Amino acid sequence: MSTLALAVRDSSTMLRRNLLHARRYPSLTLNLLLTPVMLLLLFVYIFGDTMSAGLGGGDGGRSAYLAYLVPGILMLTIGGTAIGTAVSVSMDMTEGIIARFRTLAIHRGSVLIGHVVGSVLQCVASVVLVGAVAVAIGFRSTNATALEWVLALGLLSLVALALTWIAVGMGLISPNAEAASNNALPLMILPLISSAFVPVDAMPGWFQPIARYQPFTPAIETLRGLLLGTEIGNNGWIAVAWCLGLAVLGYVWSRSVFDRDPK
To answer: What gap in Å lies between CA 80 and CA 112, rounded to an integer?
Structure first.
């Protein structure tokens, strides 16, 4: 069997393993899903009318703010799912299964690839579920074309891939699952200090660079433009550059940590 065929076979096996874990132990995924859903409902129904007044001339009330909010909530959902990946990788490292895998004649990178592909699929499923909640409470994307929907899904998948590789690295360096959850917490904090909830221009002047020059803001603005049919500007290229850079960084970091000989 060729090296490529061996890698594909073993990675597929590891992918099935991780999907079975997610199916048998859904509590972690469900707990992480509750945060974006609760934030969506809270900000729309409690703060929606007030927050919509700061969107630049909108008196559309909750419906206008819901349209603004959903792209940021979808990105927050991906960050939350990535935390689950960090915890899962850390559990594999600390419970001995990785040591067993090292003794088997399997492709060395298949363990990480299985985690990454499984996490991306979980991210897409989580985004669909949160998106369904948004549609149920009134979100509509009537101005988006079929191409824009495809590009939006592609952007969400690219963000999921980038954050998953970073989360895998965080899980590998964590001594236990609790530490992995804490180390990966910035993946949910950064969307909260981006343009997910309010425009960057409405923030205090000293805080605007923090919100503007981080990976989530251009990704959210690009997704918002695709779903609502508004201008994207340079945000699309910046978002793609952030995603590719983080994906490469996460991959190199994860492989270097994983390939170290265990102490």
So the answer is: 19
Using H for helix, E for strand and C for coil, what is the string for the chain? CCHHHHHHHHHHHHHHHHHHHHHHCCHHHHHHHHHHHHHHHHHHHCCHHHHHCCCCCCCCHHHHHHHHHHHHHHHHHHHHHHHHHHHHHHHHHHCCHHHHHHCCCCCCCHHHHHHHHHHHHHHHHHHHHHHHHHHHCCCCCCCCCHHHHHHHHHHHHHHHHHHHHHHHHHHHHCCCHHHHHHHCCHHHHHHHCCCCCCCHHHCCCCCHHHHHCCCHHHHHHHHHHHHHCCCCCCHHHHHHHHHHHHHHHHHHHHHHHHCCCCC
Put simply, whether the predicted model's pTM sits higher than 0.70 gets the answer yes
pLDDT in tens, 117-140: 888 988 998 999 999 999 999 898
pLDDT in tens, 44-98: 888 877 777 767 655 567 888 899 999 999 999 999 889 988 988 888 888 878 7
Q: What is the pLDDT of residues 150-185, one digit of tens each?
A: 999 999 999 999 999 999 999 999 988 889 989 989
For helices 110-136 and 235-258, angle between their N-to-C axes, nearest 10 degrees: 140
d(CA 14, CA 94): 17
Give the type of residue at 155: L
Cα–Cα separations (whole angstroms), residue 158 to 106, 154, 188, 248, 263? 27, 6, 17, 12, 34
